Amino acid sequence: MAPRVGVVMFPGTNCEHDAVLGLQRLGASAGLVWHGDTSVSGYDALVLPGGFAHGDYLRPGAIARFSPVMEAVGGFAAAGGPVVGICNGFQVLTEAGLLPGALQKNRGLRFLCTTAGVRVESSDSVLTGGVAVGTELQIPINHFEGNYTCDAPTLAMLRSEERVVLRYVDNPNGSVDSIAGVCNEARNVVGLMPHPERASDPLLGSVDGVVLLAALVRSATPQVAATVA
Q1: 227 assigned to some structural domain
Q2: Has 87 been annotated as catalytic?
Q3: I need a labelling partner for 5 at 20 to 30 A (CA). Which of 16, 26, 56, 74 fits?
Q4: pLDDT of amino acid 225
Q5: What is the predicted pLDDT for the residue at 229?
Q6: Please, which residues have CB within 8 angstroms of residue 120's CB and are 6 or more apart in sequence?
């Protein structure tokens, strides 16, 4: 049975179809989840994709985190379900308290639309399971408020618990400690600013994102109980 991945969309989301296609290419059964839904039953993993949820009013993710679906997302995460937030989805996860830290305006107050080198710092998460630490990938970024920040105790905790999942090779946006992605304590919730779905087809110029999306699909594979005659 193919793993079922729900891609959550909010008003202003614009990367949902990219995420669905990228996951489908890897054999997942991916479909859209509306922000007004109150259940995510039937899915084996969830993706919060990029875009500008609710127009980024107040600050990115600040309104989306109150959407009805987010209570279901939180319950799914608490039960151990794989949840990945990409770009705006990362911002929503921090606003919802599912990940530590926050995303602020880029260094130099410049919108970035380019390809960034990232390095895998942990192979113990739903997005990097089975990927060798030190693996470098070229992944597109597309953000204005992607500068990850947190206080000193939180940074020390992330380092000591090896919860920094990805770091930039050449920090493009001023993120503290060159952080490009982090995970929660249980390692089943991951947020990252780069867009792996935009590097999942040769026609897009790169397939480096497949490494990460494939790990997510593996983590979402339904466990079929063996029956004993």
Answers
A1: no
A2: yes
A3: 56
A4: 32
A5: 28
A6: 128, 131, 132, 133, 134, 135, 136, 137, 165, 166
Q: Angle at Cα 55 formed by Cα 101 and Cα 139, nearest 5°?
A: 55
CATH number at residue 61: 3.40.50.880
Query: Within a domain: residue 180?
Result: yes
The catalytically annotated residue of 35, 54, 143, 195 is: 195
Number of domains the chain is built from: 1
Residue 171: inside a domain? yes
Query: Looking at 15, 87, 150, 183, which residue is catalytic?
Result: 87
**Active-site choice (16, 121, 145, 197):** 197
Active-site residue, 195 included: yes
Task: Please tell me the predicted confidence (pLDDT) of residue 204.
Answer: 80
Structural domain including 157 reads: 4-220
Q: Per-block average pLDDT, block size 10, for the chain (229 residues)?
A: 96 98 97 97 97 94 97 98 98 98 97 97 98 98 98 98 98 98 98 98 91 97 43
Residue 101 in domain:
yes
* Residue 183 designated active-site: no
| pTM summary value | 0.95
85 CB-contact burial (10 Å; exposed 0-12 / middle 13-18 / buried 19+): buried
